[in-house]
Design a protein that fits this description.
Elements (H helix, E strand, L loop, with lengths): L1 E7 L5 H10 L5 E3 H8 L5 H10 L4 E3 L5 E4 L1 H8 L4 H29 L4 E5 L14 E6 L2 H11 L5 H9 L4 H7 L2 E4 L4 H15 L4 H7 L2 H26 L1
Parallel strand pairs: 1-5, 1-6, 2-5, 6-7
Antiparallel strand pairs: 3-4
Helix pairs in contact: 2-5, 3-5
Length: 244
């Protein structure tokens, strides 16, 4: 199986590319944001740890007093207000839970559905080091000012300062571009974006049916994944040294 790591900055158009891969090219997409919500549902270990770490006043209740979730907007203010320690604490709670759900989803697509390609839609692909498990990494990028304007349009509740804080909480898109195998620039029209995505799929995501079946054999697939992991780890070290 070819694992494609898809990432970008907030409001650069990553979700649009993810939808195109699903709807136009019929590829399975495992969305880390969706898994992150599932990982912190009421009753889960991660949910309880978030409340104990950031405050039980974040809990939301229904009319009967049952806990239904937590106030994500308020949590976002506490985490993205420039408190780096708070952001690291949240990541330490959520990321392991999301990774486990992600592993199960990939195995399901590989062994049960027989997929030859699966896309991992992960905002923090490089920050979390998950790019090492991907055969190809793709970054969706845009100009900084356009990125800021798109974020403000998407969430009218954010002030310009809040939006800049959320962008700054992630790696700079230009740093991600240096580590990526494929860069999709999203500064133009949706039609241009669709064309770029189609060309990427044709060039990088095609594999023979025989090779697909060979990789479904667990020992072969796992051995191939191990080789990819070693190659990407080595390649990333070289790229990081060159960028310093």
């Amino acid at each position: 199986m070819l694992i494609v790591g898809l990432t970008g900055g907030i409001a650069t158009g990553k979700s649009t590319v993810s939808n195109l891969l699903q709807q136009q090219h019929h590829l399975p997409v495992i969305d880390a944001d969706i898994l992150a919500r599932k990982a912190v549902e009421p009753g889960t270990r991660a949910f309880n740890r978030i409340l104990s770490t950031f405050g039980h006043d974040l809990a939301l209740h229904d009319e009967n007093g049952n806990v239904t979730g937590f106030d994500r907007a308020e949590l976002g203010k506490r985490v993205f207000s420039g408190d780096e320690a708070a952001r690291r604490k949240l990541n330490a709670i959520v990321h392991p839970a999301v990774r486990w759900l992600m592993v199960k989803s990939v195995l399901w697509e590989w062994l049960i559905n027989g997929r030859s390609v699966v896309v991992l839609d992960i905002p923090l692909l490089f920050e979390s080091g998950l790019d090492r498990f991907c055969g190809i990494t793709v970054v969706v990028a845009t100009e900084p000012e356009l990125q800021l304007q798109r974020l403000l349009q998407r969430d009218s509740r954010l002030s310009r300062e809040d939006a800049q804080g959320r962008i700054a909480s992630q790696w700079d898109v230009n740093d991600k571009k240096k580590l990526a195998d494929v860069v999709i620039e999203n500064d133009s029209s949706k039609e241009a974006l669709e064309k770029n995505v189609g060309e990427m799929v044709s060039q990088y995501f095609s594999r023979s049916r025989l090779w697909t079946w060979i990789l479904r054999i667990p020992p072969v697939g796992l051995a191939f994944a191990f080789v990819v992991f070693i190659q990407r780890s080595f390649s990333r070290r070289i790229r990081e040294k060159k960028s310093q």
